[in-house]
Amino acid sequence: MSRADLPLRGVRILDMATVLAAPFSATLCGDMGAEVVKLELPAGGDPLRGLTPVHEGHPLFWKTANRGKKGISLDVRKAQGKALFLRLVRDFDVLVENFRTGTLDGWGLDMRTLHEANPRLIVLRLTGFGQTGPYARRPGFARIFEAMSGFTHLTGEPGGPPQHMNYPLGDVVAGLFGAFAISTALAERNALPREAQKGAEIDLSATEAMARLLDPLAAEHRIGGVVRERTGSRATYTAPSNVFRAADGVWFTLVGTGGPIFARICRAIGREDLLDDPRFADNAARIRNLEALDSLIAQWCASQPFAELAAQLDRQEVPYGKVYSIADLQADPHMQARGAFIELPDARFGTVPAPAAVPRFVGRADPAPPATGPETGQHNDEVYAALGLGGEELAALREAKVI
């Protein structure tokens, strides 16, 4: 299947955002068939180009996070650049930006001006705290969103410091909400006759996106008077649910939500007597006796290597999973059979591995993998030629450092 057969075919997105959250929104839409053009300053300088992993000066993070995009350069802060930008956006469906609140307005690219150039233009404005409120102009990065959303408060060992994971989770979660918002705005706009279509302005707060994941916590606090705390890997809403270690040092996670699954766990570990133990009669009782229950399971796990206990868990259809590294994940036969990783064509490395597009549409063949993220201004001639700019004009714009 070609990319022209994907669901968002025909949608054009201009991505002028930096780093990860908002650009990830555009990348996800690109996975679904949208044409995405990545706009950078003529000198480059997007911080994502310097974030690890960088191999021998080549930014792998950039290459994977901005896959499938065409690259142009343009300085919209200059008068010529602003004029060219307003010509450019006439031919796009979506503009993605993540500058601090008020920055585009200061450059003369406020919503009124953008919609005068293209009334149908959808604008995704993804910031740390949104376009309004006392924190609107604060800078923000993934760890700030994670911390202030309440997410980091839940991560870590009891009595220990809150912890972040070694990946910018707050950025990619916000990016997911951004892609959802773009798709929603496109559906709303395109349901109307073309002459009635008006592009939406989307105000997306990355902190609110992270908080949205924590659905019941506000109710738990106000109605139940409970502030949920750190419990390591142990869940306190269902039991048993924890990370355990086998005799050969392999870590795995085991989940026993609901009575039938708990019964299967008891059979797997040879302790069917626990089914008659009042301490474990139902989920509420098991949560009250978490430490005792986890201790029993941990002893069984520590008595044998992972392969042996996995066989017993499989026989009883107990939900469990080995804690994978990225190496384990790529080597897993199920992931390989599904084609969960693809090879992005790349001029420097030949190909670069990356996760496949999610989700899949049944009955359609997988499209050819997109190329890795572009060099700064790589597609200037192609994109600006489509606006009618000739070679001399482009040369003059380069000389003036507009592109």
Keywords:
alpha/beta; Rossmann fold; formyl-coa transferase, domain 3; 2 domains; 13 strands
Structure in words:
With 403 residues, this protein is an alpha/beta fold. The chain has two domains: 3-213 and 338-399, Crotonobetainyl-coa:carnitine coa-transferase, domain 1 (Rossmann fold), CATH 3.40.50; 241-323, formyl-coa transferase, domain 3. It is 36% helix and 14% strand. The protein is built from 17 helices and 13 strands. The protein has helices spanning 21-31, 60-65, 79-88, 103-106, 111-117, 142-149, 169-190, 206-212, 217-222, 259-268, 283-288, 290-301, 306-315, 326-331, 333-338, 380-385, 391-399; strands spanning 12-15, 35-40, 54-55, 58-59, 70-73, 94-97, 122-127, 201-205, 241-245, 251-255, 320-322, 341-346, 350-355. The chain has a six-stranded parallel beta sheet. Strands 9-10-11 form a three-stranded antiparallel beta sheet, with helices on one face. A hairpin with a 2-residue loop joins β3 (54-55) and β4. The longest helix is centred in the middle third of the chain and has 22 residues, at 169-190. The chain starts with 11 loop residues before the first strand and ends with a helix. The mean pLDDT is 96.
